[in-house]
Amino acid sequence: MATKKKSRRQRAVAASEPRPLNDEPRGSARNVFPKPTQIDLRAWGAAGVRIMTERALGACHSYGDEVWKLLGVDKSELARRRAEIVAALRSIVADPERSDFVNRDGAVTLLAELGGQGALADLEAILSSPFERRSTRAWAAFGIGRCAGAKGVEVLGRHVANPDALIRRKMIDGLAASRAKEALPILEDVLKRDQDPFVANRAYGAIRRLEKDLKVDPRPLEPRPSPRVGGTTEAVKG
Question: Would you say the pTM of this structure is higher than 0.85?
Answer without folding.
Answer: no
